[in-house]
Amino acid sequence: MKRIVPIFFNIYFLYSMPKKTKKEEDGDIKRFKAFVTTVLGKKGAKVFAQNNAIWEEKFEKDEPELENFVLKAIEFDNAACAVILMDDWMKRMNSSKNYEKWTKNTPQIKKLILDDVYFQIKTDVFRTSMEKFGGRKGITGIMLKSSDEAKKGNLAQASELTKPLVEMLQDNPFVSNDFFHYVSISEEMEWFIYLHYKEPSRILTRNVNFICPIEHILLRSGFNAFERKDYFEAEKYFLEAKKWNPFSVNGLRGLSLAYRNQKKWNELLITVKECFKYAYRPSHFKSLYNLLIDYFAEKDKDKDALCCNYLKMFYVESDSDRKKVARDIQFLHRIEKYENGIKRTTGKLCDDYLYNTVDILREKKNKRNSLQGKSTITMKDVQKSSQKYGYPMGVNPEIVEIAKTLFQKASQSGKTKNAEYFKGILDDLEKCSEKMKDLQKIGSHRRIHRTLN
Prior knowledge:
The chain has helices spanning 4-14, 22-62, 64-77, 79-93, 96-103, 107-130, 135-151, 155-169, 188-197, 214-227, 231-244, 249-261, 265-278, 282-298, 302-312, 319-333, 352-357, 379-389, 397-412, 416-443; strands at 180-183, 204-207, 336-339, 342-345.
């Protein structure tokens, strides 16, 4: 057993530390013996030591990829899982047939094999800790119950349900670092957005959502805290969720809401603009423009708020929503501002698109709406506001291309459900893009105005 530390675990105890005395080194070895015994049991630790003595010379000379992988796992990741990995590997390689087959692999293939085995070990370790909640299925049920309790207004109960799950995550073996990166991305579209924007790297990346819905646990906890009006706590949960899925539109929206209610306006603007880049549903854009309207209202910039309210109109789906947006616009039209002692009326924003899409505002008796007049807002104003503050007027074209490519691949491979999923996203995005093109044609050279019937 005394040879284990010098071979594989020197870094675990001695990395970046001053030179130790013989007594201190013996203490390290003693502590490590106890650690291995805890992980593998007494019999397992004895077999580990015996196998280690057999493979001692080969590790450094013939298996540098293996040695490097394990040292990194111990130093930067999870020592217990690294011990299990080495124990399994040595037991298997005691068969000359298995070892001969192993040595025929290239260094790159060896790394891939090790990564697969290591990931499976960590998966097994984590699933063991999930068993008391009924595994992944049980955890999903707990979160659904928490959501139901929150909807009923039982916020304390909703939070109590997710609290043990959050505590479980504190001991999860999937800790990202400079060598291993773990994500929890549940939405398929967001996984491919992640792959699209992820910078090329040698870091090993794994999506652990199929093991445990970590992202959903943190988001549910964040929204529970938000509903309790504990916005600081909500912010912490949403930031933690962002580490697991930096492209979660729902997570970034939740973080923006937490910033808004804490009056962290600069953080709100930055996060909303980031979220726009990855948005892929009409409802995403609607909620993001709402947040921008709140931002501009706080900054007393009514014209910019009006621009965002107008853009939001292209992403509402129901008649009731369209009616609400139109009423918001009408309200903003009536806002009177005093600048330099001069009374100014914002006016009415209502162009051909609004006229054609908000038929529900017309009274059955075709009564004339009393709101009339020309708006002080033009399409150039909308463009200027967009450019000044860095928010988009429409869908990110890269997201459209991602959806289009995924739909085509799913269709060609006969994956009907996937094809329908991506087709739905693509149809929504293209519909919104077409509406925006029509808007720009309509309003590019004149003021946006119209009498609303």
